[in-house]
Amino acid sequence: LSIVGEQLPPELEEEERLEKKRPVVIECSDGVGLVAVNCSDISLGNLVVSGCGLKGDGLQSALLELKRSRVGELVYAVPSSLSIAVFLGDCEDLCMENVTVASTVGLGLLGINILGTSVLKNVEFAHNSYAIAVDRCDDIFTDSAELIVTSERESGERLGGGAYFVFQDYYQGEEEATSPSSSSPTPPEGQLVGGAVTFQIEGSSFINNSDCSRSLLNDAYSLSSVSLRELGRYIGASAGLSIVLAQSQYPVQFTVSQSTFRDNKGVYGSGAVFMVFRHVRNSALNIARCSFTNNGALDGNFSTYAIGGGALAFVNGLSTINELLNPVNQNTSLIVTDSDFTDNRALVGGAIFIYGLYQSCILSVLDTVRFFCQNCTFTENQANYGLAMFATETKLHAESIGLQMELRDTRVIRNRIHGSETNSFLFALDMTPGAITSMALNLTLSGSLVFSGNDGSAISASNSYVGVLGGTVIFEGNTGNYGGALNLINSYFIVVPGSTVVFRNNTAHIRGGAVRVKLNAQVGQSVASFCFLYFAYEEFVYCTNCSDLNSLDVRIEFIQNSAPAGNMVYGSSLFNCPWAAELIETYGTDNVYDILYNNFPEVVLFDSDPMSSVGNRRNVETLPAFLVIEDNENTQLSVTPGQVLNLNVFAIDELGQNVPAIISSYAINANRDISNNFSAAVGSSNFHVLSGNNATKTPVTVLVRQKNPANVTVILFSTESLIESRFALEVVKCPNGFLYSNETLMRCVCDPLLEPRVMCDQETQEFIVPHNYWIGTLDGKLDSELVVAPCVKDYCVIGEKRVSPTNFDSQCGDDKRRANVLCGSCKANYSLSISSSHCLPCSNYRALLLIPFLVAVILFVAAIAYLRITITAGYINGVIFYFNIYELYSQEFSPGNDSGNLYFPGTLFTLGIRFDTCFYNDMSTLQRSFWDLMYPAYMFVLLGIITLLARCFKWSRNAGFLTIQMFATLMLLCYTSVLKSCFELLGYTRVSTITGETSLRWIADPNVVYFHSWHAALGLLAIVLVLIYILPMPLLLLFPSRVYRLRYLQKLKPLYDAFWAPFEPRYRFWLGMRLIVRWVAYGLQPWHLFPTDALLVGTVIAGLTYSQLLLRPFKGLWRNVWDSLFLLNLNVLFLSSLHFEVKANILPEDERVAVYREQFAFSTTFLVIAYIVAAGIIVFHVIDRFPKLKTATGNFIYFLKNRKRKPGASAASEIDSSETAINEDSEERRRETFVIEHLSDGNATVTTRNTGLAKVISFTELREPLLDYPPTEEERSAVNNTA
User: Fold this and answer.
1) Is 427 helix (H, G, I), strand (E, B) or coil?
2) Which of 241, 239, 353, 243 is closest to 297 using CA atoms?
3) Residue 492: phi, psi to the nearest 5?
4) C-beta separation of 339 from 298 below 8 A
5) Mean pLDDT of the chain
6) Which has more pLDDT, 983 or 431?
7) Can you say whether the dihedral through the CA atoms of 682, 688, 692, 698 is positive or negative?
8) Helix (H) or strand (E) holding 1056
């Protein structure tokens, strides 16, 4: 079988091959995958298999075919609901090169009994995952084994991952089975089938695969649970690569080299898992030059971890119930060389988890299962126990031969403890988290090994031995609860000749800085059980006649280890060690530590007398030898009188260890004399306890009797050993806002002018600024006069804040991107958003965004022009008014929620921009205000251009009148935008210094002096707009009768027609009155007077709603109905905002979130209702715009009514009613062009002169549709003259 994509010339360089390769992409329908059963010479190359997954009947057919070949029953059952992208069964000689298997909802590849020689090169398994939701993986932590298997049996939706390979025996019985390469019968048990299997994976990657199955848990419980044995085994273990050896008829040599395992998420061995049954012989898995990174988490946030083996799991001794009491004769191994394990995470075994399932069997001496790790690095892995590696076997005792575990030339560095979880079983054994944790399993070390910087003990062993078989082992900088380097529970430490062991800088929080020993004497055990240190020869023959230890060629060093109890060793006197008996007799003392310290420094080196003590602390608890002040030599320290200086101070003993100490202090002057002008106090009463924690801060307060700056030398000394450390301090004058009190207090106190608005912390020399207040200077200089003022808008940090006199910008919000006076401007290299107060990093290239923006405006204007969605029709007046008010009070309607995205469609009716972006760097608030004014101007210019084009190219015979309608519509749309910009430009705030000096500042950016420089120009423009646009427009619309009498306004009558067309003649003032209501809303809102402003505006709108329902000012029923719906919607929103505000105020702050969520849901519901009504109005305009669509709609309405027509009703009446329904409100705006008629003596005669006809027609076109007002005398005269 061969599926190979395009082949590239072999002479190409590797980089060129990567750039030019074009793999064949195979994508599958649901339930479809690639299957090969009973095949040989399989070649897959240059392929991408994406989104495939054989399952269901197809999978069962493939499994049935596999059983028919000669495999028989599978060791691990395959659920039918599992999806498998590539399924290979009972095949030979597989070759995969440059193949990617990705995006499978299940397993990427399942291989069962792939014999012969197989090579996978440059193969990638990525993003293959299980089907269930991530949160459903949490039940893997249940203690119920029954629940675990029940879920596994019911569905394969938990199964996922990259590749899964199973090797098992062939069916043995009376029938013969066919080999993949021959027809020979299956050999008897124990004989080989087809020779040894060689399987190699090279240069491949297993990335971001996920598995949620719990097959390994089933195996762990199966021998102790009858129900689990009945349910059987199901496949599933690793998210990346799974290898199961369950064969005895042939050996398997599996090699993985130069491969990457990254971001795989699973339960056990997320990167890879190697499972071996106890009857497997002469087989091995070799992992060489591989990297395992960031594996083990069950979700992307690493909040839930794999149970065991974040990177790799090795489970051996699996068996069936029939094999339980059989001797073990495995001779199998897992060999890992030249590989890196970094940032992998699990609850147990952050990188590697090793588990031997021997239960109660009697282990045979022929059992030679081996784990060998050489030249590997374990870095930054995390777990609760076994930070890098956790190994255990379920057997009687470590003295029984079981798994042989050896580490050679390996580095275990900076592995970390995850969380504070504890396992009750391990906690009962006093098992501190160890970088390497071994339980009932022997560990040997050889070559050059380094254990450095680990959070837990370097090695934590229980019922085991740790042996050093030559070479150098360094334990340095490890920190554990018990035993910084070694934590031995009923375990031993054995050293053979040619070995060097160094314990350096290890720390224990409780006991045993270097080694902690806990030995439980049991009946039948010799007194040697209390000895943890053994010297041995080859094959662990213990040295008993050891009068001359120097001949052993062994060296052990204890250097700078620390713990509250037992710096070097805790828990053993070494008195009962077999090698110590003769030494005790020879040197006449039973203190073995003294004998070693004084006579054998070349064998066991202690960096100090192991018997020295301070109080009850042996060895580590010497008196402090040094007081070290961190960075004292490189940092110039300065304080103000009374300020508390927090220093990192350490007490170091003679061994260089950080130890607890009590310190005090005093101060001297420049002449090194104690002076009454100074005093230095450490702590509250001039005593401070150094706990030995490097993070502990030592508070030092310096008091001076003189106001002027001075230099002081402060001496810190240990009250126990009297060692001291000196450092120089520069005492500077009090900062701005603080005053030197007097010679009695000798400290800086808060300026009285700041109180009570701002309080001061005299120890830290900081201001305590209340919510919604700002403190600083107007010119940006730190020593200028201070200003305390209320914050404007949302520029300041919410809540009470601490502000340093040297950094006033720390009180500014928007992620500290705002700065200067009242946080009114953005910091350098930030630009103000075009739609909010946010400051954004912006590039000048963003100016290109203007192009789609301008095009969008063109399309918007063209759309409303083409569809004639204008205020002349009268349906969108209420829509515009609704979204004008909603935009203003959106935060009051749903506090604490950003409704910008929800409100975005509403911006089409307000000409607002509601998305955070910027167009160029360093855009200020003033510049944005300018562009806010240019935006409406651009729309009017655009309208003029469209009108000229329409006339020039004769797109419409009524282009003139349509222009008037569009002009009136844009005037109303732009009115609130211009009104808002003018209110913002003319707004100001009064800022006063603490001495009363006042300055007027622009409220939008208090850094700008009011009406100064460019703000004066824009302010004048705003005043002009107010005078010619904001004020006149509502006033002229309020008094229609007066407008008609003013001769100079006659030419604006077409524009008035467009505004007043939808209103009844006596209520043409209604639009002007609604513009006045906008004044009230926009005038109150900027002052943030909620809920007062909401109450006032809501009351006004309620009166407006009542008046509209009473008067019905619009022509036609539906105009009044639609408009009233929007007004009622606003009334409900205002009432609900007041209701929820009262409801939230009676609750504590931490309980208000639920109220705000309820309010957000409520307001969103009514906003959606408004959108639905607005959409209906737009649909009505679309139907009315297209005659055919209008006719079809009428017919549809007729059809609906005809179905409900009563017997005897005429079809004509139904057709008439349907026409009435579709034309009810559109008739008035569909009048034909007005033809001026001259009535004389009751007879209508029409006469024209060629010279005046064009002017009359031009005039009447612009006045379509006409309103019902009487012609003026000038118009009558013009008609008579023309006739």
Assistant:
1) helix
2) 239
3) -130, 160
4) no
5) 77
6) 983
7) negative
8) helix 1053-1060
pLDDT at 693: 61
| Structure tokens that stand for 318 in this block | 């699996």
Bridge-partner residues for 926, per DSSP?
A: none
Tokens of 931: 């562009």
What is the sign of the dihedral through the CA atoms of 676, 678, 684 and 690?
negative
* CB half-sphere exposure, 141, CA atoms < 13 A: 13
Place of tokens 């350096």: 504
CA distance 503 to 561: 7
Q: What is the largest CA-CA distance in the chain?
A: 153
Contacts of residue 1252, defined as CB under 8 A and 6 or more positions apart, other chains included, come to 1281, 1282
pLDDT 10s digits, 546-588: 667 888 889 999 988 888 777 888 777 777 788 888 888 888 8
DSSP bridge pairs for 100? 48, 124
DSSP class of residue 928?
H
Confidence band (pLDDT; 50, 70, 90) for 1256? very low
Q: Which residues pair with 379 in a beta bridge?
A: 342, 413
DSSP 185: P
Q: Read off the pLDDT band of 112 (50, 70, 90).
A: very high
The residue written with tokens 């230099």 in the block is: 711
Give the model confidence (pLDDT) of 329-387 as tens digits. Answer: 567 889 999 999 999 998 889 999 998 876 444 444 445 678 999 999 999 999 888 89
Helix (H) or strand (E) holding 482: strand 479-482
CA dihedral 1111, 1113, 1119, 1125 (to 10 degrees): -50
Please say whether the beta carbons of 994 and 939 come within 8 A.
Answer: no
Nearest-10 Cα torsion for 183, 188, 192, 197: 70
Give the per-residue pLDDT at 337.
96
**What span, in angstroms and rounded, lies between the C-alpha atoms of 1020 and 353?**
76
Mean pLDDT along residues 770-791: 89
- Alpha-carbon distance of 109 to 88, in angstroms, equals 8
Give a three-class secondary structure readout of 96-138: EEEEEEECCECEEEEEEEEECEEEEEEEEEECCECCCCHHHHH
| Residue found under tokens 């919410």 | 798
- Continuous segment of H or E residues that includes residue 1257: helix 1250-1261
For residue 1146, give the amino acid letter.
I
Cis before 756 (ω within 30): yes
Q: Determine the Cα–Cα distance for residues 319 and 278; give it in Å rounded to an integer.
A: 6
Q: State the pLDDT at residue 201.
A: 96
Question: What's the pLDDT tens digit per position in 166-209?
Answer: 998 887 654 443 333 333 334 444 444 557 899 999 999 999 99
Residue 557 contacts residue 495 (beta carbons within 8 Å): no
Distance CA 562, CA 619 (A): 8
pLDDT score for 191: 42
CB burial string 60-92: b at 16+ within 10 A, e below: eebbeebeebbbbebbbbbbebbbbbbbbbbbb
Q: Which of 1176, 1178, 1185 is nearest to 1230 (CA)?
A: 1185
Is the model's pLDDT at 817 over the cut of 80?
Answer: yes
Q: 3-class DSSP state for residue 213?
A: coil
CA distances from 471 to 410, 506, 537, 601 (A): 12, 20, 14, 19
Contacts of 79 (CB under 8 A, 6+ apart): 152, 153, 155, 156, 159, 234
Paired sense of beta strands 346-348 and 382-383, if any? unpaired
Sign of CA dihedral 792, 793, 798, 803: negative
**pLDDT at residue 627, as a whole number:** 83
Determine the 3-state secondary structure of 866 from DSSP. helix
Phi, psi of 345 (to 5 degrees): -140, 140
Query: What is the pLDDT averaged over residues 676-685?
Result: 72
Complete DSSP assignment for 1083-1101: HHGGG--TTHHHHHHHHHH
Judged against a pLDDT cut of 80, whether residue 1089 lies above it is answered with no
